[in-house]
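#struct-queue
[09:14] JT: dropping the first one here, sequence first, then the structure tokens:
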Amino acid sequence: MSKLKGKVAIVTGASKGIGAAIARSLAAEGASVVVNYASSKAGADAVVAEIGKAGGKAVAVRGDVSSATDAQAIVDAAIQHYGKLDILVNNSGVYEFAPLEAINEEHYHKQFNVNVLGLLLATQAAAKHLGEGASIINVGSLVTRIVPPGSAVYTATKGAVDAITGVLSRELGPRKIRVNALNPGMVETEGTHSAGFIGSDFHNQAAAQTPLGRIGQPNDIASIAVFLASDDSYWLSGEHLYAGGGAR
């Protein structure tokens, strides 16, 4: 039986990588999905087409979550197409590594605007429509545990995601809305390929330090997102689930 039949979900940053895998998995479990993208319309359309081919329902919606107007428009599109909203996956994120001496205002604001402000704006817009049993999933990162050199700003954004998750679980808990963080370790995506991580010493070191012996794949994370979106996790809120194959 489909775990999410009749549910409506928004997945931000869902045109590729982890977001795309989450969108496909939610749809496979019966949810109608808004596949949000900021720039890759072709990627988002491809995800929607895959979902449709598999018998699911999805629509691609452009929007930059760091803009309050865009964040509201993404939520409005979900209501317009499907009439309600039950699940929000705050997956949109950017990362850029730099040593302390290279950090500047642009490096800082680029990441905080999307990773932190974007999460807040999307949640603010969505919360008006979420009811009892709704689930908000904030995609954080294992980086807050392993704190690698050169990641001060990125790690700070994901630390903020963890903190915000706790705060919002208390704010929204009285409305029976659950808020949890899903924190992946290193995952093989288009982004980690283009950043040069895959096949690098960093990749090899990450795999060697992971008890399960490899880095993650997008579907490894998507299956946990389905759990957090479903009633199977009805008694979890304010939690940080680390999904890194045992890496610490």
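[09:21] JT: and here's the second one, same format:
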Amino acid sequence: MTPTHFAFSSAFLLGLAGLAFNRTHLLSALLCLEGMMLSLFIALSVWTLQLSSMNFSVAPMILLAFSACEASAGLGLLVATARTHGTDRLKNLSLLQC
């Protein structure tokens, strides 16, 4: 495994571990998701540069567009949650209290 592959794999796994183990605030969960998407974007960009092929050059931009949509939807949910519940703590949120 090359050092670049190790760096991207460890960045993704750290984001996944942060999402799995540190679930106190919605904002921290969104930041972990954003870190995971950023590591995937950089890894996919490096992969397409290593292949030197134009067939896969659009894939990082599509992933970046999906990442931006995910971030905007997550921030919209964060604002809506903060307005209705007064906090972004995940323990206060329940699907039974609509």
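[09:30] RK: nice, looked through the second one.
[09:31] RK: Residues 78 and 84 are 10 Å apart (CA to CA).
[09:31] JT: good to know. The chain has a mean pLDDT of 86.
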